[in-house]
Amino acid sequence: MLQTLAVGSVLWAAPGWADSDDIVKVRATGDVATTMSALEAAVEGAGATVFARVDHGAGAEGAGLELGPSQLLIFGNPKLGTPAMQANPLAGLFLPLKVLVYEDAGGQVWLAYEAPEETLDDLDGVDDDADYVARMTGALRKLTQAAAGG
């Protein structure tokens, strides 16, 4: 119990960040559309390529279903992704990188992504300590922080 309280206190003391297993969540201050636009601008400003912006909420609405605001940005940089695919071509199943921006049931907006070392963990030849994994991790952290607005 005490250990659980200590972990909870650490997570509470780190505003804006939550980590649930392999998923990293960053609290955003804006709405989904504004946060997604800020993320897209940060990605492009960093020299990466935006491949797609998927509006899950609009897709659900088009199918006559309800879903809170939720958008996915798919983006990449060959300088980061190619070394992973050279180590194991199956890394291409998990790349390019993806960040989800969504509103939870309480109205809080989050940016969420899977930690690259977890995404690529089961692939032979891809080392968790590889430079490209660290660079992907750093890029995701910087980009989501920039888009979070807080």
From TrEMBL:
Domain DUF302: 54-116
Lineage top rank: taxon: Bacteria
PANTHER family per the UniProt record, alphabetical: INNER MEMBRANE OR EXPORTED, SLR5037 PROTEIN
Protein name per the record: Camphor resistance protein CrcB
UniProt organism field: Roseovarius indicus
